[in-house]
Amino acid sequence: MNFLNNQSELSTVTVHFEVKNEGTDNKQLNTWAKAKALLKETWNGMLHAVSYLIIALIGLSPGSFS
Hints:
Layout: H1 2-9, H2 31-60
C-alpha cells in the first residue's frame, strides 16, 4: 500500500487543449496560406509524437520502477 501511495504522489498528468478555428476553410485560403497551415499542422504533429516518445521512454526505463 505504501508503494502505491508513493507512486501516485509522483504521477504527472498532462492535458493538451487545442482550439480549432471553425470559420477558416482550406478551400478559402490561397496557396501560401495553405502551405503555412500544412507546415503548422505537421510541426505540431511532430512535436506531439516526439513528446509522447520521450514520455514512453522515461516511463518504460528500468530506473522508473525502483
